[in-house]
Design brief:
5-stranded mixed sheet, about 20% strand
Length: about 200
C-alpha cells in the first residue's frame, strides 16, 4: 500500500504533462480511493495532499481562485494564529501543563468542501484556522480542553471526543471549535504525543 501511495503521489505531483482525459481519470480515482484510504490508515498529511492535487487537476479555475483568496488572508491569519497560540501558552504555563502548539490554515480542498456543504461563499468560511496541541497525558488533554472552553465559547455541535471513542482507524484526539478572539472560529485538536 505504501508503495502504491508513493507511486500515486509522484503521479499526482507530475500529472501536468498527461492528456486532459487521463489527468481527470487519475485525479478522480485519487480523490475517490486513495485520499479516503490514506485517511482511513491515519496518514492525514497524505490525504490532504491527494485532495489538494486532485482539486487542482479537476477544478483548476476554482483552485486558483481559492488559492489567491487564501493567500490574501495568509498574513493576517498568521498573526491571528500567533495571538491565539500565545494566549494558550500563557494559560498552560500558569497551570504547569507542558504542550507543543502548532497552528495551520485549512487545506484548499477542505475549504472548498466547506463552501459546498454549507452553501456559503469563501468569505463566510470562518474556521479555516486550526491549532494542534500535543501534550504528555490523556488527563492533560482534557485539562487543556477545559482551559480552551473557559477562554472562549464553544460552537454548538463542533465538539468531538475521539479519545474516549476512537475512530475506526484508531485515531484519537479531542476536537473542538470555539469563537476565538475577534469573533473568528478556531478549531483545536488536542492529543498526546503517542496519538500524534
Amino acid at each position: 500500500i505504501l508503495i502504491k501511495f508513493a507511486d500515486r503521489l509522484h503521479n499526482m505531483r507530475t500529472i501536468g504533462h498527461l492528456p486532459e482525459e487521463k489527468r481527470r481519470r487519475i485525479a478522480e480515482e485519487t480523490l475517490d480511493i486513495y485520499a479516503p484510504l490514506a485517511n482511513r490508515l491515519g496518514i492525514g498529511w497524505l490525504r490532504t495532499e491527494f485532495e489538494d492535487l486532485s482539486f487542482r487537476t479537476l477544478m483548476p479555475d476554482l483552485f486558483d481562485d481559492l488559492r489567491k483568496k487564501v493567500a490574501k488572508r495568509k498574513e493576517e491569519q498568521k498573526k491571528y494564529i500567533d495571538e491565539v497560540k500565545k494566549i494558550i501558552e500563557d494559560k498552560l504555563s500558569s497551570t504547569g501543563i507542558s504542550a507543543k502548539i502548532k497552528g495551520r490554515v485549512k487545506h484548499f480542498y477542505g475549504i472548498y468542501q466547506k463552501t459546498v456543504k454549507q452553501k456559503i461563499p469563501f468569505e463566510q468560511v470562518h474556521d479555516v484556522i486550526g491549532l494542534r496541541i500535543v501534550t504528555d497525558t490523556v488527563g492533560h488533554c482534557y485539562d487543556i480542553l477545559g482551559i480552551i472552553h473557559s477562554l472562549w465559547p464553544l460552537v454548538p455541535g463542533r465538539f468531538k471526543d475521539f479519545i474516549s471513542l476512537p475512530k475506526s482507524n484508531m485515531y484519537q484526539s479531542l476536537h473542538t471549535t470555539v469563537v476565538g478572539p475577534g469573533g473568528d472560529r478556531v478549531e483545536f485538536q488536542i492529543r498526546t504525543e503517542d496519538m500524534n
